[in-house]
Design goal:
Helices cover 44% and strands 19% of the residues. It has twelve helices and ten strands. The protein has a five-stranded mixed sheet, with helices on both faces. The chain has a five-stranded mixed sheet with strand order 8-7-6-9-10, sandwiched between helices. Bound molecules: 5'-O-[(R)-(carboxyoxy)(hydroxy)phosphoryl]adenosine and zinc ion.
Length: 372
């Protein structure tokens, strides 16, 4: 089965084509093409995604991206209707004006090519990034979904069967990284910027005068909810009283100044502590939930799952836990962590197996779509 996926829920215009086939009890999935047109450089100067600009860019990009995905998969445009078995499109959650561009494109292609349409929840897409390649994933599975808009612990009892057992009460993990990067003035998107700075941190050289310590919000709460806005506020107050930061403030333009150099040396320490605070909370809650629900598989998904420390530390913890719990730990390959359409097409394949199609006249954008 050949599935074309379309993803436009935020600031990436993405189209992918995958091939899925059942071999015995296994589903083998291979990627025929994967095109992502990122708008990061456009939104960078605003420090975040501007919805109106994102939508306009999607309108300009979507057809060239569809075309490129077809070409890379070796499918001629005139034969697309025969070669493609279904079109999967993200219909929520996300930015309404961005989502509309993807959905309208998918509707037109479904109508013109006479190919069935499948609606995909963006979070479901992130989860299915783990199913690319081989899919012998045992249920029940627990998925930590951490992106710019969501921080969730999802219990998955079978394909398309989800129960949200924990959610964020305020900022999502990715949002927290983005806000921290803004406070530290180190660029956008914040996650990769914080991670890159944190990597430079060497505790031996950090100096002892000002040891940074940030809270681990809700780490001991009995539920599986998250809260990251307090962490950002704690960072804000630490920065406010840091003598190096204060010295740097008025001299910021004089890049080579001594104060500026000292402050720049301090940034990695802030980033390392901030990143570790997020990672500690995510790992602790995930392990507790894995124990309580006796899951067979634990998976990561979403943009923040690109974070190397989260991947490494969670992997190490589950290596120890797996002996006791018998839980397998799985991470999506890096290219499928942030928004892409391979994950959407993959989720689409499993829905197509269940013949879960939707009439192109009936699909509707839902910016607040819930995972059910
Ligand atoms: O899944 P995604 O591409 O879009 C949403 O659905 O939101 O996630 C984007 C988020 C951003 O907040 C970004 O800062 C974060 O993922 N992110 C990271 C890393 N790479 C991306 N956060 C931490 N470490 C990273 N390496
Ligand atoms: Zn996403």
């Amino acid at each position: 089965m050949i599935i074309l996926g379309i993803e436009t829920s935020c600031d990436e215009t993405a189209v992918a084509i995958i091939k899925g086939e059942k071999v015995g009890t296994k589903n083998l999935l291979s990627v025929r093409s994967n095109v992502v047109s990122s708008q990061i450089d456009i939104h960078k100067k605003y420090g975040g995604v501007v919805p109106e600009i994102a939508a306009r860019e999607h309108v300009l990009n979507v057809l060239p991206v569809v075309n490129e995905a077809l070409e890379k998969a070796g499918i001629k445009r005139e034969e697309a209707g025969e070669k493609i078995d279904a079109i999967a499109v993200t219909f929520g959650p996300g930015l309404i004006t961005s989502l509309i561009v993807g959905i309208e494109t998918a509707k037109v292609l479904s109508c013109v090519w006479d190919v069935p349409l499948i609606g995909i929840n963006h979070i479901e897409g992130h989860i299915y990034a783990n199913f690319v390649g081989e899919s012998r994933i045992k249920f029940p599975a627990l998925i930590l979904t951490v992106s710019g808009g969501h921080t969730m612990l999802v219990l998955m009892t079978g394909h398309g069967k989800y129960k949200i057992i924990g959610d964020t009460r305020d900022d999502a993990a990715g949002e927290a990284f983005d806000k921290a990067a803004k406070l530290l003035n180190i660029g956008y998107p914040g996650g990769p910027a914080v991670a890159a700075e944190a990597k430079k941190f060497n505790p031996e050289c950090s100096g002892q005068k000002f040891k940074i310590q940030l809270p681990r919000p809700m780490i001991n709460s009995k539920d599986y909810d998250f809260s990251f806005s307090g962490l950002k506020t704690a960072l804000f107050y630490q920065l406010k009283k840091d003598p190096l930061r204060l010295a740097e403030g008025p001299l910021r333009r004089i890049e080579a100044s001594e104060a500026s150099k000292n402050w720049k040396k301090r940034i990695p320490e802030y980033c390392a502590e901030f990143q570790q605070a997020v990672v500690d909370v995510l790992i602790s809650k995930t392990i507790n939930a894995a124990k309580e629900f006796k899951v067979k598989t634990v998976m990561l998904s979403g943009g923040v799952s690109a974070n190397q420390e989260l991947r490494r530390q969670m992997g190490e913890k589950f290596k120890i836990q797996s002996r006791v719990l018998g839980t397998k730990f799985k991470i999506p390959s890096l290219e499928y962590t942030t928004d892409n359409a391979v994950m959407v097409a993959t989720a689409g394949y499993f829905r197509a197996l269940r013949k879960d199609f939707i009439d192109w006249k009936k699909i509707k954008v839902n910016p607040n779509l819930e995972l059910k």
